[in-house]
Amino acid sequence: MKTNEIRRKFIHFFETKKHTYVPSASTIPIADQTILFTIAGMTQFKACLTGEEVRSYKRATNSQKCIRVGDLDDVGKDGRHCTMFEMLGSWSFGDYYKKEAIKWAYEFTRDELKLDLSRFWATVHHTDEEALEIWKSIGVPEERIVRLGDKDNFWAMGPTGPCGPCSELYLDQGEKVGQCYEKGLICKGPGCDCDRYLEYWNLVFMQYNRQEDGTLLDLPMKSVDTGMGLERVAALSQGKTALFEIDLFEKIKEEILLTAKINAKINDLSEQQKESCNVVADHIRLLTFTIADGANFSNEGRGYVLRRVLRRAVRHAHRLSPNWPKDQSFLEKIVKTVVTEMGEFYPEIVKNKTRIEEAIRNEELRFSSTLESGLAKFNHFVEEAKSKNLKTISGENIFILHDSFGFPSDLTRVLCEEIGFKADLENFDKHMLEQKERSRAEAKFYKFDQDDSPWFELNKLNQNDDKNFAGYNLKVTTK
Ligand code: ATP
Ligand code: MG
Ligand code: MG
Ligand code: MG
């Protein structure tokens, strides 16, 4: 089944169970200061789950665009993590509870997704006899229900407040799938950190209120919060073992290869080309969606995440196309395909297409001019280290790459990993701190430290008027 069809079916399925469809919230949480990006469907429903907010409906469903920067390093390395993905969700705010949630998740798996149930597994929290009994009562054999601990199967919004056990749905993709098999290890089963048993749906049962002293009191209102990864179920439904192989990425990857003037079919690419193609496909989606929602490139916080992601993508694009002209943007050319593939459901990316392309173009060109010389410098550092029989890039050198060539430290770390080197990030952090101290001292000199606004203006100026960018100027933007 095509990805767009699964999204439609999911929403329709829960609408027939009297859930109200609520559009996806922005990728940038407006009211929530605790997170930089929306990481799950429940973000916009937090207050409904605690009971602080009461809406006209008690059941909701949606498809939420999510950003998980924490999964950045897994992209292109394993088959199951994207940095931007869609989470299909269903909620009960003090209405139905475990029985319906489990029954409907199984029903959707069986009747709509039509997944092979002989490969189905469920997990429950080791204390949750109730969930275990419900799974058994709907026909899942006990040996296919795994009891896991807090790490996998207990969910909490924070150190105190609403929390509860969860139950997850898995499909075994076969013994030859996953990193355990590749490394000759025995896979632990559901909950193992490899791709074989693919977790695709998480059902959270919110039933406790955790107190300051850690005790769990029963909540007056019990709720359900479920999240299913759209790309993951699409992969399972389409018989693919990696998210980047699903239909949704096909056209995006074709456009990447076309732009890079690579004539091979995706399956004939080298492993390195495949990885680069996947990373670009992933990162361009993140950039398209976050910029559409109003995020901008900058040297701090959310904007710096965007910058890091773009720079990684540019480096992979140039790896695919080594002679790519420095005065043109590679990534800009892929935006239109993301828009055609996903714009029907997310009109904000259609509406903001030109602005997204422009922002990406400007940011890419700033970096392209220093990428080549930065890579040459990196190689020089590598040779220097080798001549001393070392396999580490020092904190000072990571700092030079960062300060003069615009290489985010995680990009240097990835470059190091690729050649079996280590990056001394601890010492890099010390250099960063020292520079911050220096710029703070200069800030005092200019009396800008009492007020953010001049910095903000300077920062804006710095970003807009920056055709001759040579590394970014922390002096202006870090306070
Ligand atoms: P994993 O253990 O595989 O990292 P998770 O336990 O962190 O997943 P949840 O927080 O339970 O994931 O999110 C609910 C669902 O969202 C998951 O069951 C999965 O289908 C999907 N999902 C989570 N992270 C990603 C990701 N980075 N890319 C694609 N889908 C994801
Ligand atoms: Mg995870
Ligand atoms: Mg998990
Ligand atoms: Mg999970």
TrEMBL record:
The cofactor required is: Zn(2+)
Q: Does the keyword Coiled coil apply?
A: yes
Q: Give the domain of life.
A: Bacteria
Where is it located? Cytoplasm
Q: Name one GO cellular component term.
A: cytosol
Keyword annotations: Aminoacyl-tRNA synthetase, ATP-binding, Coiled coil, Cytoplasm, Ligase, Metal-binding, Nucleotide-binding, Protein biosynthesis, RNA-binding, tRNA-binding, Zinc
In Gene Ontology terms, what is one molecular function of this protein?
A: tRNA binding
Q: Name one GO biological process term.
A: alanyl-tRNA aminoacylation
The UniProt record lists the EC number as 6.1.1.7
| Cofactor binding description | Binds 1 zinc ion per subunit.
Recorded catalytic reaction(s): these are: tRNA(Ala) + L-alanine + ATP = L-alanyl-tRNA(Ala) + AMP + diphosphate
Name the family.
Belongs to the class-II aminoacyl-tRNA synthetase family.
User: Any notes on this protein's domains?
Assistant: Consists of three domains; the N-terminal catalytic domain, the editing domain and the C-terminal C-Ala domain. The editing domain removes incorrectly charged amino acids, while the C-Ala domain, along with tRNA(Ala), serves as a bridge to cooperatively bring together the editing and aminoacylation centers thus stimulating deacylation of misacylated tRNAs.
So what does this one do? Catalyzes the attachment of alanine to tRNA(Ala) in a two-step reaction: alanine is first activated by ATP to form Ala-AMP and then transferred to the acceptor end of tRNA(Ala). Also edits incorrectly charged Ser-tRNA(Ala) and Gly-tRNA(Ala) via its editing domain.
Q: What's the name of the protein?
A: Alanine--tRNA ligase
> To which species is this protein native?
Fluviispira multicolorata
Q: What is the lineage of its organism?
A: Bacteria, Pseudomonadati, Bdellovibrionota, Oligoflexia, Silvanigrellales
Which residues of the whole protein are included?
Answer: 1 to 479 of 917
